[in-house]
């Protein structure tokens, strides 16, 4: 994503463990503070994309994470589940900051993720309109079909329906 933005003449600031495992680790105060700082420097009208780690939220891991519609936060005794919950919560906080600054945002998750059931995500959709767009990565050059959901603060992308949680 950042490479594409740079090719279009836009500036982009990636937050990625592969770039800086200390200053960009969103599970630490330092990394999360850095992400907030970078987001606060985005001008209104700018954009923010995020793709929180999804491994504990998807269908394939529900047997070990014990995540479900009734219990989206899953096993409290599992470190990977606790980290998944923390990263989801921090991603949502960043989305709230972006929304408050009139910054367009997109959050990406696999089609079987139940991250949208996280209590803070449920609060988010009560505070601001959130759009949902379903797509397949294979339609955009991906190696497999990989159903994907994009959640967004914008209705200007031609999304066909609003996000609704029954």
Topology:
Elements: H1 2-7, H2 29-40, E1 47-50, H3 62-65, H4 79-100, E2 104-110, H5 119-127, E3 131-136, E4 147-152, E5 161-162
Helix pairs in contact: 2-4
Structural commentary:
This protein is an alpha+beta fold and 166 residues long. Helix content is 32%, strand content 15%. The chain has five helices and five strands, in the order H-H-E-H-H-E-H-E-E-E. It has a five-stranded mixed sheet with strand order 1-2-4-3-5, with helices on one face. The termini are far apart.
Features:
5 helices; 166 residues
The helix content, as a percent range, equals: 25-40%
Strand content: 15-25%
Terminal CA distance: 32 Å
What is the number of beta strands? Answer: 5
- Unreliable segments (pLDDT under 50, ≥5 consecutive)? 158-166
H/E topology pattern:
HHEHHEHEEE
Indicate the radius of gyration in whole angstroms: 16 Å
Given the helix and strand composition, which structural class is it? Answer: alpha+beta
Tell me the overall shape: globular
What is the arithmetic mean of pLDDT?
83
Reading side by side through the largest sheet, how are the strands ordered?
A: 1-2-4-3-5
Number of helices: 5
Largest sheet: 5 strands, mixed
